[in-house]
Amino acid sequence: MEKRKKRFGDRYDGYRVRSLSPMTYVAPFIMKTRNDSSNLFSGSVELGRIDNYIKKKRREDGLVGFGFLHVIIAAYVRLISQKPAMNRFIAGQRIYQHGEDITVCMMVKKSMELNAQESAIKVVFKPTDTADDVYRKMDEAIEEARQEGDSNLFDVVAKIINYMPALLIRAFISFVSFLDYFGLMPKIIHKASPFHCSMFVTNLGSLGIPPIYHHLYNFGTCPVFLAFGAKRTALEVQKDGSVEKHRYVDFTVVSDERITDGHYYANAFKQLDWILRHPDVLDEEPEQIITDVD
User: Fold this and answer.
1) What pLDDT shows up at residue 4?
2) Burial class (CB in 10 A: 0-12, 13-18, 19+), 156
3) How many CB atoms neighbour CB 181 within 10 A?
4) Domain regions of the chain by residue span
5) Which tens digit of pLDDT belongs to each residue from 164-194?
6) Domain 15-280 has CATH 3.30.420.40
7) What percent helix, strand, coil does the chain show, rounded to 5?
8) End-to-end CA distance of the chain
9) How far apart are CA 217 and CA 205, in angstroms?
10) Per-residue pLDDT band at 151 (split at 50, 70, 90)
11) Quick one: average pLDDT of 269-274?
12) How buried is 56 (Cβ within 10 angstroms: 0-12 exposed, 13-18 middle, 19+ buried)?
């Protein structure tokens, strides 16, 4: 994939999308924040093929900790390679494309104790990444976050900010938000911030509960928040009158409606569903990478 050249009006973290309909450019001035423009979507994934795929990755490929988390992130990375508008964001009331990088953020507990400290991981993927690439990058980031002490950049920056008086923190965040509006926020803060990403994901299945509809953050550039819950079993009556047991995972998506239109979103969720029903496609790089409009 040829790297896009920066032009006047682009940001260091994104490219300005310039060829959309006039109404698309007006929308961010009407719906000024992500909470103003949040759409809620829910879906379910039947686990028959996915369970077999996970077993294969663990036994044959040696990916011992491979699980549904890796599958759904790999599926979303693959989705963006084919539906790049899902990787757009709003900043300064303008529409941008994150570009070649697909950044996924997630909160990680350092242990499963109730009051254990949390840390944020921020993992950068490429549109060509396979399920194996996702597994390797995610596990490296999770292992680093679970180390003792301030093991990653987010921990270090958060600790420094925490030493400030409350009023100074408020002024600092306001100033940083002002700089981010114009694409001038220091890159070190952008690198540490889990709020600047392509997608935020949370695994509530590890807590044994269904997924919630998690709000989007007004600070940052994250256009999508995906949550998935615990596995559940359903008894379903077949056409011949027999009853079969099926296992599902429910997931929810909260998205910024300003980045694209409803027709595009609908097709994107249909394609995500297809990928999850055919997880073997994640073992190979996509045949082609679709680039966003100019």
Assistant:
1) 77
2) middle
3) 13
4) 15-280
5) 999 999 999 999 999 999 999 999 999 999 9
6) no
7) 40, 25, 35
8) 15
9) 22
10) low
11) 97
12) middle
